[in-house]
């Protein structure tokens, strides 16, 4: 629970704290799974590891309703603009997690056809290392995203720094 | 491993020699199938001849690809694999050329399926095909300004800037 004033039958806190609490426990992930990390994600989503216990019950396969873009797998250079378009279609606030060595840095594919990390086309909030990462590592990354969603200030997406960051990627 | 039908192979060699003579540079039966190295100028006529011949009937283009032997006098080549389904016999046809004269006749008038294979060959080796209806890149990004499968690049290019070196100790 966030800090606040509580008494008999009421609890008062700041608006953005309450919103952060709601957001962190109702993230809708959009899986962008292109290779083997996607298989690990399926295990993470399945009952054994059960991502749903973090409020990620609903996988959204449309970018328009999702909050968290999970990029899992190798992104070819030809896929780069498509990934960016998916990101642009998501509504604010939006978070991005790069799962696995390929999404984070190109991984073993140090070659002409592979994008050397998705942070060359979209901003990334959390990087999960591993080739592929185990479900526990993906869950750890999700918890980090929840932490970001929980503590983000209500005005962050309107800040000049944030607009500048998006501008470096040519978004808006 | 493919079966060699000696009768059909001998007939193929004989007909090709009679039809094209000197333009058939070498012919040999390697382990799996006969290989003919021919002059690139006759390649389209040769494919059509093998397609139209009523006995041979090489009417299936299994694959078509490029190759680059940088140390050869004629470094760039195109290799055609033909299959005569009725005779159950496959043959391989190779033609080579230089960088200055890198245009091949397109095989699309005989085999419509050569369309994408020639685009791929162009994409990776920069081999041009005259008469091709739509010769542009097929697999790589359109902005690419080099031909990645040519053997003219060092294994590791220390000057490339699309790699983040922080994690790789370069």
The main pleated sheet of chain B reads as: 5 strands, mixed
Q: What structural category do the secondary elements of chain B indicate?
A: alpha/beta
Proportion in helices of chain A: 25-40%
What general outline of chain A do the C-alpha atoms trace?
globular
Radius of gyration of chain A: 17 Å
User: How many individual β-strands of chain A?
Assistant: 6
Q: Roughly how much helix do the residues of chain B carry, as a percent range?
A: 10-25%
With helices defined by DSSP (H or I, 4 residues minimum), what is the helix count of chain B? 3
CATH class identity of chain A: Alpha Beta
Instruction: Indicate how many domains the architecture of chain A comprises.
Output: 1
Full CATH superfamily name of the domain at 6-101 in chain B: NADH:ubiquinone oxidoreductase Nqo5 subunit
Q: Hey, roughly how much beta strand do the residues of chain A contain?
A: 5-15%
Largest sheet of chain A: 4 strands, parallel
State the order of secondary-structure elements of chain B, H for helix, E for strand: HEEHEEEEHE
Query: Which stretches of chain A of 5+ consecutive residues score pLDDT under 50?
Result: none
């Amino acid at each position: 629970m966030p800090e606040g004033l509580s008494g008999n039958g009421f609890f008062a806190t700041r608006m953005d704290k309450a919103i952060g609490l709601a957001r962190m426990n109702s993230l809708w992930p959009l899986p962008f799974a292109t290779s083997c990390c996607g298989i690990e994600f399926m295990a993470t989503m399945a009952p054994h590891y059960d991502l749903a216990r973090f409020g990620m019950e609903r996988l959204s396969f449309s970018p328009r309703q999702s909050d968290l873009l999970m990029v899992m797998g190798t992104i070819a250079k030809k896929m780069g603009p498509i990934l960016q378009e998916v990101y642009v279609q998501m509504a604010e606030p939006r978070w991005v997690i790069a799962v696995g060595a390929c999404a984070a840095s190109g991984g073993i594919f140090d070659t002409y056809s592979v994008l050397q990390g998705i942070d060359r086309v979209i901003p990334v909030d959390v990087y999960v290392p591993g080739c592929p990462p185990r479900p526990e590592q993906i869950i750890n990354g999700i918890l980090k995203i929840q932490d970001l969603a929980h503590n983000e200030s209500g005005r962050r997406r309107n800040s000049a720094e944030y607009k500048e960051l998006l501008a470096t990627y040519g978004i808006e | 491993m493919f079966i060699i039908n000696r009768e059909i192979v001998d007939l193929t060699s004989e007909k090709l020699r009679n039809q094209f003579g000197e333009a058939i540079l070498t012919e040999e039966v390697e382990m799996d199938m006969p290989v003919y190295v021919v002059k690139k100028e006759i390649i389209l006529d040769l494919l059509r001849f093998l397609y139209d011949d009523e006995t041979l009937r090489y009417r299936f283009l299994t694959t078509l690809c490029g190759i680059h032997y940088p140390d050869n006098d004629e470094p760039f080549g195109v290799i055609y694999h033909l299959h005569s389904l009725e005779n159950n016999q496959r043959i391989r046809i190779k033609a080579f050329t230089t960088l200055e004269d890198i245009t091949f006749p397109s095989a699309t008038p005989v085999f419509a399926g050569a369309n994408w294979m020639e685009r791929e060959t162009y994409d990776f080796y920069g081999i041009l095909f005259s008469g091709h209806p739509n010769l542009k890149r097929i697999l790589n990004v359109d902005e690419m300004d080099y031909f990645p499968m040519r053997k003219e690049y060092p294994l590791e290019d220390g000057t490339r800037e699309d790699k983040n070196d922080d994690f790789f100790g370069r």
